[in-house]
Amino acid sequence: MVGAGHAGCEAALASARMGRKTLLLTMNLDSIALMPCNPSMGGPAKGHLIKEIDALGGEVGRNTDRTFIQIRLLNTGKGPAVQALRAQCDKQAYRLAMKFALEAQPHLDLKQATITHFLYEQGQDGRPAIRGVVTSTGWQYEAKAVVLTTGTFLNGRLVVGEKTQPGGRAGEGPSLGVADSLRAFGLEVRRFKTGTPPRIDARTIDFSKTEPQPGSRVPLYFSWDETARADVQLPGGRPNPVYPVSDEDLHGWRPQLPCYLVRTNERTHEVIRSNLHRSPLFNGLIEGIGPRYCPSIEDKVVRFAEKASHQVFLEPEGWRTGEVYVQGMNTSLPEDVQLAMLRSIPALEHVEIVRFGYAVEYDYVPPYQLMPTLQTRAVAGLFLAGQINGTSGYEEAAAQGMMAGINAALYARGEPGFVLGRHEAYIGVLIDDLVTRPLSEPYRLHTSQAEYRLLLRADSADLRLSDYAYRFGLIDEQRYARVLRKREQIEQTLGRLSKLIFTSSRSVESAAREVGIAPLGQMTSARDLLRRPETHYTQVAELARRVYQHEESADAEPPLPALSPEVAQEVELQVKYEYYVQKQQQLVRQAQRLEGLLIPESLDYQSIPHLRTEARQKLARLRPRTVGQASRIEGVTPADIAILMVYVEKLRAAAKAVS
What we know:
By secondary structure, the protein is an alpha+beta fold. The protein is 36% helix and 15% strand.
C-alpha cells in the first residue's frame, strides 16, 4: 500500500485483516490519516459511505467515534434515506488514533519511504504484471499486488497568489516519478485542483458576534462497534477556554464543542472582486479543474454575484487547540487579500491568520482506465484508490481504499474480485460512476446519484453488508452474531405485526387514545397501524400490551417484543416505506437482467454490426464488464444496448454450441 491517507489506511487494514502480509509505505509516518482540509467526517452521502465502510469492517467510523468533538444528524426534516451523520474531529487525535490502530494490526507493517517507480514483468496475457515498488533510495519491496493511494502528491504544486512551490500539501514535498511510471505503462494522466481555507487564531475572534451551532443533545455514533465509543482518545479536561461553551455542551452525554456561524457581506465581496486579477484561478496560473461542490470563495462570489452573503462556519480543529478552520472560504488569493476579506466580517475584524489558504494542483489517473475492482486495465495487480482516481473527499477515498484493499488481497491469492452493485451500497454507486462516466471535474458523491437510495439508508448498512464482511474475515464472530440477532428480531417482529389485529371497539379506541394513537376507525392490523406517518413502534407495542396482555398473564411474553431504539426504528422504516421499497426492488430485479449479461473482455466492438460510431468508441474505451454497466455510459443509447445484447447472446449461444 503506497500512501497512508484515508484510502491507504483502509486498504492496508482490510488486506491485513484478511490475513495477507501487508506493507504500508508513506512519505511521512507523522502524517498518517492527516486531515489537511476540514477535520470533519460525514454529511449527506459521505456519512452513508462511512456507515458502509464500518459495516464492511473498516476503521474510519470507529476512529471518528474515538475522536469527534461534535456530532450532528443532518437533514432531519427530510426522509430517512437522505439523513446523515456529520462529525467534527480533533485533527491531531484522529491522526494519532488511526496510527495506533495501524500499529496494533497483525499482518501489517508500516515504513517511511518515497516510491519512485514499480517492479514488473510481462504477464501471460501480454500486460505488465506488478511485482513490487522501488523507493527513492533504491530499496525494493516485492509484492503480488500494489495499491496506489497518492492523494494530491503526484507532481503536486501549491499555489498562493502569484507564488508557487512543489508540494502535495503545506509543509510536505510532492511525489515525483510515479506519474511518469504510470504513463510508461500506457495510462493517461491528467490534472485536477483542490484548495483549503485559512486557519485563524481563536483568540482573535469576537464570538459574541457569531451564532453557536451546538452538537447533538442525544447520543449519535458512526460505528456499530461499541468498543470505540468507550475508547475516546481526546485530551483530558476542559476544552480551550477561548471557546464559549454551555454547561450542556460540556456535561451532556459526551463533552462537545460548538461550531460558530458568521456570514460574508458586500464589503467582503468587494475585497474579492477588486483582487480577482491577482487570483490564480482567474489569471491563468492554475490550469487544473477544481471541485464544483467545494468551490473557492472567489469562485462563489463570481458565479453567484446576486447573493448578498455566504455562510461561513468557524470550526475548532481540536479540543485544546486555538486553530480554527474557516469552512466556506477556500481560497488561493494572495495572503494580504485573505486577511482583508476575513477582517471584513463583523466577528473577525481583528482576526489573525495562523495558516494561509492555498490551492494544490496534482496529477490523477482518469478512472475509465480501471476495472470495477479498482485494478488498472493496463497493469495486472496495480490498484488505484482515492484522489488519484479523480475523487474529492476523505470519505470517498476511504471507501475506495476499502474496496481496493479487499480486491488486492483477493487478487494476491488468485481469487475472484469483489464488486458491490448500485443497489447494494453507495460504495457501489461511487465506483460504478467512476469506471463508467467520464470525469470533467473532481468527483463528489451525492445521494441524488443513487437511483435505489431507499434501499441504501445509512442505518441499514450493517444489514446489507455484514455478510460480505464476515465472509472475508473483516468482522469477528461476535459482531456478526449481533447482526444476525438484529435481522432475526426484525423479521420476527414484522411477522407479529402482520398477525396482530385490533378491532375498533370502545375499549381499544380508548387504549389507543391513551397511548397517543389517532382513532382506528375500523379493524386494522398492527402493521397497517404502524404504517401511519405519526405512529411509532413503542406506541403500537404498548397498545398491544394493553389490549392483549391481561393482568392474570402479566408474566407472559408481550404480544410485541420490547426492542432497542435501533431495531425499533428499522422495523418502523421497513413498514412505513414498504411499498416504495418494493417498487425499487422490482426495478433492481429488472436491471439485474442487464447486470447478469457479462461482456467478453476481448470483445471487438468494431465487429458489431449496426452499432453507432460514438457507442463503439466509448464502449471500446471504457470496456464495461456487463451490459448493465454499458447502459450507463454517456452517449450509449437504448438502441445501442439492444444491439449489444443481441450480439452478446449470439456469442454465448455459439460458445454453448461448441462446448
